[in-house]
Structures are given as structure tokens and as C-alpha cells.
Amino acid sequence: MTSGRGIRELLAVDPRDAAKLLLGAVLSHHSPEGTVAVRLTEVEAYFGQVDPGSHAYRGRTARNAPMFGPAGHLYVYFTYGMHHCANLVTGPDGTASAVLLRAGEVVEGRDLARSRRASSKAAKDLASGPGRLAAVMGFTTADSGRDALVMPYGLVLPNYHGDPPDISSGPRVGVAGEGGSEAYPWRYWLTGDPTVSRYRPARIRTP
Q: Where are the beta strands (DSSP E) in 80-185?
């Protein structure tokens, strides 16, 4: 098992490399309600101010400030007036890189996860999609900026014993403009895993 410091060093790299490293990792959140842990099966990399799809593309704001902090911290935002989405900060301090946690398998606390996502009928759907994943984990903007490598959170990286998983990649989901194009195939998922969400391009907004 890699220590918190060791994991932070492993995540302080190019977000595309960190994203692939996180596939199969188990992220946990210990709350007063109980513990929920999710094995990550789908993620997206965002490369700070050089990435037109990134929240940090136009610079630092009060909302995206956690992205500019240390690797291993959470960046949680509220979107569409209904969903929270959770990211793990990657790269060296100040680069504003992050990995969006898009989907996973609930491996601990399934009853609590079901109570938080009562509309999900099948176990494979509980954390399939970034809004669902954040919901079952109990993440809100109150968690943004906090260190995911220490209590009440935890992150365990996978150990594949020299047999790496089959990873697929493609354009990011729902990202408008160039950042959602084939030029940025920075969505990664475990090939064939049933918890991976469906790909949806960005909606084209009409005047």
C-alpha cells in the first residue's frame, strides 16, 4: 500500500498520466452517515490554463482555486443547478490540473449509496456518471479544497502486479468547443466495465 505522501507524488504529474493511474483506484469518504468507497472506472483529464475545456483556462477564480493547490486535494463544483462533480487535483502546485471522477463501482457502503441515489435501480448505475458518483460519495462544495489522502477520505491505488488493465480513451463528455473535440481524447475508462457512463457530446446551444 502506497503512503499518502507517495500517492501525492505519483499524482503530481501530467493529468493524463495521473488519470490512467487512478483507474481502478478506490476512493473513500467516511462521514457521520457511514463510509462509501468507490472503485474508479472512468475519469477525464484537465490540463489547467493550456486546456480550453478546463475551468482554469481563463485563470484563477474563487471557485476553481483548489485546482491551483497541491495534488491529491478535492475540487468539487456545482453544475446545472442540480449536480456536484468531484475532481482530484494533479500536477505540481499552481498548474491547475485535475482529473474529473466520472464513474465507478461502489465497493463499500452500498446501502448508504442507494439511499443517496434512490433513483438508480441497478448497482452498476449507482456511480455511473460524475453527478451520481459525487452523490453516492456524499461530496458537496464543502469538500472542495480538502485533502483526499487523509481522513475523512482515503485513496488506495491499484496494484496490477505487472498486468496493466485495458484502458480506452476518447473525447471528453459534454465539453463545448475545441476542448470537447477529438483533439483532446482525455477521457479514459476501463474497457468493458459495466459502470462506465455513456458518451454524450456537448449540447449545441442555439441563439
A: 83-90, 97-108, 127-128, 153-156, 167-170
